[in-house]
Amino acid sequence: MKRTALKRRARLSNAGSMRRSTLKRTALRRRTRRARPQKDDRNYIAWVKAQPCCAPASRHPGPSDPHHRPGEGMGLRSHDHEAIPLCRLHHRQVDGFAGPFTGWSRDQRQAWHTKQVKLHRARFALAQAEARA
Fold first, then answer.
1. What pLDDT, on a 0 to 100 scale, did the predictor assign at position 18?
2. Rounded to the nearest 5°, which phi and psi values hold at 65?
3. I need a surface site. Which of 27, 47, 89, 117 has the fewest CB within 10 A?
4. Distances in Å between the alpha carbon of 75 and those of 18, 40, 42, 64?
């Protein structure tokens, strides 16, 4: 006779020796979800996509792909407010240390990225202020 998950060869022991009335039922505590920080800034990403490529010596007028800061962990993406516009060619090259990024160390690349983030966030804030006025 084959055993399956639904049939047992021997019966389970009788657990009825304990009365159900003596067992107290405890209330289940539900975990409250912590509010996660927002990682998406859709207005900024839409603005970044419309900007020209910011790679050194780039002549690509746009539209661009948003490039997020590396180093947040395996398979994780950094916040959208740390994205910069790069064309597809330079996006591949910055990740592979090729093209204008040849010979750059990881620290040099991160310093350049930080500088570009500050520059583009300031430009975005200016564009937002002009749009409101």
1. 54
2. -100, 140
3. 27
4. 51, 16, 21, 22
> Would you state the structure tokens that stand for residue 28, as one six-digit string?
């289940």
* b/e code 18-30 from CB counts within 10 Å (16+ = b): eeeeeeeeeeeee
Best CA proximity match to 36, nearest among 76, 91, 85: 76
Q: Has this prediction a pTM greater than 0.85?
A: no
- Torsional sign, CA 109, 57, 97, 46: positive
Angle at 67 between CA 66 and CA 71, to 5 degrees: 150
Q: Specify the pLDDT at position 97.
A: 80
Low-confidence ranges of the chain (pLDDT < 70): 1-40, 70-77
Alpha carbons 86 and 47: distance in angstroms, whole number: 13
Calculate ∠ Cα 106-107-108, nearest 5°: 90
